[in-house]
Structure formats: structure tokens, C-alpha cells
């Protein structure tokens, strides 16, 4: 007889079923007292009786075992897993499922099993995620409502030219040596620079300069850059990461406060985006932006690891 009843076993309390039947706890609770029987898991080294294997599955199992593997009398290889034997691996081939309405349904294997967790409800191009291919996805253009909001919030406004020059000078002198992530070509006068990049540079420069005080605080540049980052529409991926890296110069609250305006938030956002575009991988030797990509990646690594 078991030393405990089912109720006491579930409650994890002392049971005197060996002395009193029913036990004292069940008598007080006025419930049925039944002995607890522990169920032991049964293991087997052979296939379950009645399990039928077709010739294809037998051949797959045979190909996965060494030549000297033991074989049962029926010709099927002896499995050391029993009923828990793992399924045969499908090496990228289409797997035929049971026929439906008289016609077989062919299930296409997706790269790294993406079709399993996307469930076929999300369209995607398999060729874009295979090794050697980079995604061509670009963020959508800013909507008319977003552009109107950005104009009303002054996201496209720039300080006077004298303030711009002083902020840029302060950035190049104090910020760029510690954050060498801005490509000089992005600020070439022949092409209009990214407004997101400009506002981010002005923010970083305002943290080490006083020239902006007559124009506005660092919070002004931060608010503009933040709006452009989230609502500015299509941006160059590298410029977006650089902007997030520069936004971490502004830290209005301490680390004990939960906020999306902290340095940690922006530097980790930049790190996540860097992984998405493969910045952690060594760029090709002939890549034009090889040096920039490496500087940007290791600048993020140094700051994230602090």
C-alpha cells in the first residue's frame, strides 16, 4: 500500500494512510481517500508493436545509421530511441503531405523554417534571406499627415548659419574623435544632406558647445531628430544607425528611470538595426564604405559593452 493518498500527495502534506484508512486529512475534509500510485515511464529499445514503416522511411533510417548498425529481423534498423525516434531530416526537398480531395499537396520547405512561424499569412521572398543575399526592403515614405506634423513641430527648421557653423565645429572637434561614424560625403554641399543627420549632429554638438544657447536648448535639436527618426520616412540605413548613435549624446534622465529618451535606449536601438543590415559581418574587401561600416560597428560595440 502507498504511504500517501492522492489528495495529500497533491497538497504535499504528511499523510497517515498507512495507519488510518481513510487518512486523517481526508476524513476532516470529507473527501474520498484513495492511495496514490506512482506511474513509471516505460522505455523500450524496439519499435512499438503494430507500427508499420513504409519502404521510404526504412531507407531513410538506414542511410542515417552506420554500416555496422544492428538490424531487426524484419529488415528495419534497430532504433535506440523507440517511440521517441526523431523524424527524418528533409534536406531542402519538398515534402509530400497526405492527399487532399484526391490531389497531393506539396509543402515547400522555407529557409530556416520561416514558413512554420509565419504560417503562410505573410508574403516573403525566400531568395532575399538566403546566404549571399541582402534585403532590399526600404521603409515607406512619410505620409502627408506625418509631413504636416513634422512641419508643425519644426523638424525641418535649422538654426542660423553662424550657429550651424559653430555647432558643426564643436562636433568635429569634440564628438567626432569619440564617435567617428559620420561620412564627410554625407555633408557634401553638392547634394542636400539628410535632415535627420543634420539635426543629430547639431544635437551632439550642442552638448559640448554654448553657441546654441541664444537659439535654443539641446532638447530642441533632440526633439526634431527624434521625430525625423520615427516619422521621417525613407532614410539611408547607415544614416539612421548613425543618427541613433549620435542621439545617445542626449541623456535627460538617470538610468534608474524607465524612458525611451536615455542613452541606453538609442545605442541599443542602433545596435539592433546594425544587426539587421549585417553590420556585424566583415564587409567585402572591395566595398566602398568598408571603413565606415567597421568604424560604426565597433563604435556601437564599445558603447553597448560599457
Structural notes for this entry:
The protein has 306 residues and is an all-alpha fold. 38% of the residues lie in helices and 1% in strands. It has a two-stranded antiparallel ribbon. 20% of the residues are buried. The chain is elongated, with a radius of gyration of 33 Å. The longest helix has 15 residues, at 161-175. Among the domains are: 1-38, CD2-Gal4; 144-304, no CATH class.
SSE layout and pairing:
Elements: H1 6-11, H2 24-29, H3 55-64, E1 95-96, E2 106-107, H4 114-118, H5 144-152, H6 161-175, H7 195-206, H8 218-231, H9 237-247, H10 263-276, H11 290-304
Antiparallel strand pairs: 1-2
Helix pairs in contact: 6-7, 7-8, 7-9, 8-9, 9-10, 10-11
GO biological process, one term: DNA-templated transcription
Domain Zn(2)-C6 fungal-type: 4-33
Keywords: DNA-binding, Metal-binding, Nucleus, Transcription, Transcription regulation, Zinc
What keywords describe this structure?
306 residues, CD2-Gal4, two-stranded antiparallel sheet, elongated
Quick synopsis:
By secondary structure, the chain is an all-alpha fold. 38% of the residues lie in helices and 1% in strands. Among the domains are: 1-38, Zn(2)-C6 fungal-type DNA-binding domain (CD2-Gal4, Irregular), CATH 4.10.240; 144-304, no CATH class.
The main pleated sheet reads as: 2 strands, antiparallel
Order of secondary-structure elements: HHHEEHHHHHHHH
Work out the helicity level.
Answer: 25-40%
Structural class: mainly alpha
Work out the radius of gyration.
Answer: 33 Å
**What spatial order of strands do you see in the largest sheet?**
1-2
Please give the alpha-carbon distance between the first and last residues: 62 Å
Keywords: DNA-binding, Metal-binding, Nucleus, Transcription, Transcription regulation, Zinc
GO biological process, one term: DNA-templated transcription
Biased composition (Polar residues): 44-65
GO molecular function, one term: zinc ion binding
Amino acid at each position: 500500500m502507498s504511504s500517501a493518498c492522492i489528495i495529500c500527495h497533491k497538497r504535499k502534506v504528511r499523510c497517515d494512510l498507512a495507519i488510518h484508512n481513510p487518512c486523517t486529512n481526508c476524513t476532516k475534509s470529507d473527501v474520498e481517500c484513495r492511495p496514490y500510485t506512482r506511474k513509471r515511464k516505460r522505455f523500450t529499445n524496439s519499435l512499438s508493436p503494430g507500427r508499420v514503416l513504409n519502404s521510404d522511411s526504412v531507407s531513410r533510417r538506414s542511410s542515417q545509421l552506420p554500416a555496422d548498425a544492428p538490424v531487426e529481423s524484419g529488415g528495419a534498423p534497430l532504433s535506440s530511441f523507440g517511440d521517441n525516434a526523431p523524424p527524418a531530416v528533409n534536406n531542402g526537398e519538398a515534402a509530400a503531405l497526405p492527399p487532399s480531395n484526391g490531389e497531393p499537396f506539396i509543402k515547400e520547405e522555407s529557409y530556416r523554417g520561416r514558413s512554420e512561424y509565419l504560417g503562410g499569412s505573410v508574403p516573403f521572398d525566400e531568395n532575399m534571406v538566403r546566404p549571399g543575399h541582402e534585403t532590399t526592403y526600404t521603409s515607406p515614405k512619410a505620409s502627408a499627415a506625418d509631413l504636416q506634423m513634422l512641419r508643425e513641430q519644426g523638424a525641418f527648421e535649422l538654426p542660423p548659419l553662424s550657429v550651424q557653423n559653430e555647432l558643426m565645429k564643436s562636433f568635429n572637434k569634440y564628438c567626432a574623435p569619440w564617435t567617428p561614424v559620420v561620412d564627410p560625403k554625407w555633408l557634401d554641399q553638392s547634394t542636400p544632406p539628410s535632415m535627420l543627420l543634420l539635426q543629430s549632429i547639431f544635437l551632439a554638438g550642442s552638448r559640448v558647445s554654448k553657441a546654441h544657447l541664444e537659439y535654443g536648448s539641446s532638447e530642441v535639436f533632440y526633439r526634431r531628430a527624434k521625430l525625423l527618426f520615427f516619422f521621417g520616412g525613407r532614410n539611408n540605413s547607415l544614416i539612421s544607425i548613425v543618427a541613433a548613435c549620435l542621439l545617445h549624446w542626449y541623456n535627460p534622465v538617470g538610468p534608474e528611470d524607465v524612458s525611451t529618451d536615455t542613452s541606453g535606449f538609442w545605442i541599443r536601438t542602433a545596435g539592433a538595426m546594425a544587426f539587421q543590415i549585417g553590420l556585424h559581418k566583415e564587409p567585402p574587401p572591395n566595398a566602398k564604405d568598408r571603413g565606415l561600416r567597421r568604424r560604426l560597428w565597433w563604435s556601437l560595440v564599445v558603447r553597448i559593452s560599457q
